[in-house]
User: What shape does this take?
Amino acid sequence: MATHTITFDSTPPVHVPTGTLLTEAARQAGVDITQPCGGQGRCGRCAVLVQEGGVRRRSTLRLTSEDVAEGYALACQSVVEEDAQITVPPQEKVERRLTTDRVLAEVTVPTGYDPARDQTLRRVTVTLTPPSMDDQTDDWSRLQTALRPHGIPALTASLPTLRKIGRTLRTGEWTTTAIIDTASTPPRLLDLRPTPFVVDTSVPGGAEAPPTNGNPLPLWGAAVDIGTTTVSVWLVDLLTGQVRAQVAEYNGQIARGEDVISRIIYAGKNGGHEEMQNLVLNTINGLVDTACKRVQTTPDQIYKVTIAGNSTMMHLLLGLPAESIRLSPFVTGVNEPPPFRAADIGLGVNPEAVVDCLPGVASYVGADISAGVLSSGVDDSEQVSLFIDVGTNGETVMGSRDWLVTCACSAGPAFEGAGVVDGMRATKGAIEEVWVNGDTFEPTFRVIGEVKPRGICGSGLISLMAELFLTGALDKGGNFNTHLSTPRIRNGDHGPEYVIAWADETGHGRDIVLSHVDVDNLLRAKAAIYAGFSVLADGVGMPLEAAERVLVGGSFGKYINVEKAVEIGLLPDMPWEQFHFLGNTSVKGAYLALLDKTARARIAEIARKMTYIELSADNSFYEAFTSALFLPHTDLSKFPSVKVDRVNTVPVIK
Amino acid sequence: MATHTITFDSTPPVHVPTGTLLTEAARQAGVDITQPCGGQGRCGRCAVLVQEGGVRRRSTLRLTSEDVAEGYALACQSVVEEDAQITVPPQEKVERRLTTDRVLAEVTVPTGYDPARDQTLRRVTVTLTPPSMDDQTDDWSRLQTALRPHGIPALTASLPTLRKIGRTLRTGEWTTTAIIDTASTPPRLLDLRPTPFVVDTSVPGGAEAPPTNGNPLPLWGAAVDIGTTTVSVWLVDLLTGQVRAQVAEYNGQIARGEDVISRIIYAGKNGGHEEMQNLVLNTINGLVDTACKRVQTTPDQIYKVTIAGNSTMMHLLLGLPAESIRLSPFVTGVNEPPPFRAADIGLGVNPEAVVDCLPGVASYVGADISAGVLSSGVDDSEQVSLFIDVGTNGETVMGSRDWLVTCACSAGPAFEGAGVVDGMRATKGAIEEVWVNGDTFEPTFRVIGEVKPRGICGSGLISLMAELFLTGALDKGGNFNTHLSTPRIRNGDHGPEYVIAWADETGHGRDIVLSHVDVDNLLRAKAAIYAGFSVLADGVGMPLEAAERVLVGGSFGKYINVEKAVEIGLLPDMPWEQFHFLGNTSVKGAYLALLDKTARARIAEIARKMTYIELSADNSFYEAFTSALFLPHTDLSKFPSVKVDRVNTVPVIK
Assistant: This one.
């Protein structure tokens, strides 16, 4: 048998026979290559770059065709065929490649964002002619006269704003900066500030240009997504369009019910509505505070807030009775709330800030989905897309530029880490990815923030469940195989459970486990979501495969393994290239609406044209749900890529 | 000397010689003719109708040329010349003739008032298609769809209104009555009521017509005038235009200062602004309650309020800083406040009611004058009018359809009965007219409500001061003649005073007096007002006589004696026919604006086109004021009709 010379970076070369795995060659060369999945080709962490020579790739899972063209190979799945020079990339580069490409992209400001054209808020600095005995015009008229040359006609203002005009004008010695909402009729003065802004007056309209002299004074806005489980707030500089802070937290209402139905019932009790409203306001206001501290501003500098969220969340936020949402024929009170002032509901930003609640579609398809369709671009493409929001309410949209249908199902909060014993949000200390060794059942995991783990977030749960299934630790019914020779599977307080991390490895000194009950919750969640989009596709008479793109939104973590989500039957079994993970599409849609009035109008248009299919009236949903309560599904022909060799209890990925 | 037969009504005739006074003939016939002024021809109460024959009228004061043409004569001023048949009219007929003609007219609904055309509020009853599984439209959109055929496009609403929609629609079984403000953009839903109104559907637009079947359901509005001293509220049925209740009360702020300047200073103290706002709100809200009880409705049924008032009152009501009003260059914060919701300031009507503060002109010429110019018709005539508002701030307007100039002076509250020891508002128990016998100095008076007197209102004070002056009890400097042999003039706690009513004649068991200090206050008030309009006339280069009409507004009482007001030098000495007493022109203007959007627009136009003359910068005002601090004036040539024969100390009226 021929022997080949393999060189890893600058280490001394090793000589190995044809057919040797690169991981084995590396071991001989004394080079450490990470194999969290136990060398099963599932995690993609052993990717190496073949600089010269060639290897035979048995599997290229987790590699794109571009990766292969560049010379990447999975060391655990590639065998030596000739001499080769191999580069082992730094681990963080591997991680970055895996997490940035088809996973959550950084938020970029929309191309060509021009606040003067796109933004409804205006900030204008003017110098007024002071009053005199010859000109006793009132302050309010005087201000409006000064603003008129800036294209601002007669204004309105609330009484609190009117009350501060006189003092502000005099404090600023008749030079003042006005913040104006041009979206209302007539335009509304939101605030007047005495201290003149340093502005660039060398350009036309310079009074509105962001100051360029080292001390940028942003005009702040906030984009908010109120999820049943997670609330997200983005703090945005409206003059540049940049997102300056992103914060998220569990919705304070969770303690009063995990799903929208139990929240509505709670709200219907005496004082429940006020309590629910206060709970979510406290969550939002706390997030706003945190975001503001992060960029060294204060909430009263936020003058515009766009809010997305499902219909129940929107009703509870606004104090609107929500009872009709849960009772047949399931109608909302208000799908498109008129804009109002922050003070009207006690939102902790500038009391005069414009609050724009984005329009929803129906009781179970809210503004979060209208916003998600916008930010995912479903409505802006000729391609047919399947848009799946992996959230508590499992909404799905199918459509294109020409048509949009939508439905929702109650998935529960499991994929957001709630309702799972060691679940947590995708923040520091959360296990976000897991690999389980097929022989030893020992896990390897990655923790957000590279600290000791404190729990598992949505992406970690998907990953863990898939690994446990593929290694045979879980059967297709979601039951633990308690006969395996591993201490990781044991009987806990709630039946069988798998220990991901022992107490001495964790941040809080307790074992981190996945219990049978957790698995059941996750199964029901994934089954509901799968049933939702498959019934929807049936409803429009299109196979799922007709979708040219699968756009996945959700707060389950910073990134998600497509194949693991497919392996558990959460996502349809389609080519990896068709999946796009978009993170929180709702808050991103709210962000786009915050910046651009055209985007805002498009959301309204999306909400108007979406056809809502009520699944609660559809028997086929229950059938689809029941069939999906398995790993990956009752009907394995729907998941051809997931082949499990039950003889060895080790799955084989082709 | 010839003898003539005089017959009074159906009493036996008497025979008297030529030259006998009719009052003497009546005495002989046993007919009682009232002579409150002691037969001096001043009060007009002895008017009789000469049916046949003739008398010679020595004076026709208090009679119009029409009266004389009809045959009226003053019995105390007419002598027998031939046989005559005389009718003595019932006393109430005399009173009515004296008080209704050129005095306060009853409020009449503007001719041709059509709520569908003139009113900004609409009340529309609609029946909605209930939601079903086939039509899951949200309640808010469903309501708007139902209203669209009624010419109402997309609506807005406050959150509290949105919150009640769902329940209201279901309680009313999908038939509902909407109250909509069409003046806002977009139109605003103010309220939704479940109980269907009984409406006349037999006419087009019948859904808005006032029900005619015995149970009128008015759509209520309120017109408010906030005077420095007196607050007036009219409760108006907006569907018919009828004023259903008129109530007035002293402004609760009086205890914190009598004039606007002292109020502004008080408001500038810590907590003063809130206190001032609460005081006037309490006054208004109390009046609204009273008015509502009177017509058996509740304040929450009032959906629109128009408010007139001087600029300081408006600022204090709205919580706007008022300091700049009193400091040079004397500018207001806001002359034309945008409309707001009643809840925004705690006005005790429906919280969603539209509150429309009418536009003012300048610091010392407020919305009360804009409204007064409208209701008095100054701006609607080719005639040059002099409009004098005899209130605490003594505003004057001169002008016509083509031009309007205005000024103001601080007159103080004396003519509204405040700041005078026994002064009171023109309500039950107020002495509203006084006659003093020129020989005995004994008074006769008329009390509102025909009860025992409790004080003197503005018209009573004018009347009393004129009588005391004409009878010589007061000299031209306003000093009491303490040498007269009458117990009515005595030394009181504050110097000389005149006793109008002894304790046993009064409602509260105390003497009612006019003190030297009171006279001084009244003198200063009338001097300020006189100086105001005379300087204004000078300013536009027109003699006062150029005014073809003198329109007098004010809350001084139900009616006022022209000649007495002239006699004390409050009003210019012009022919009686040119005077028109209009009562509270401000609340009347607010009432017209409440009903008719065209009238509302006219007030804004009036405010815009009025030229304000700042008297505080005008030395000639102080000169004019000082010259007017006499009865009737330093320069008697300005008051040719007021001739006082100081030899007899009894004035002779020509």
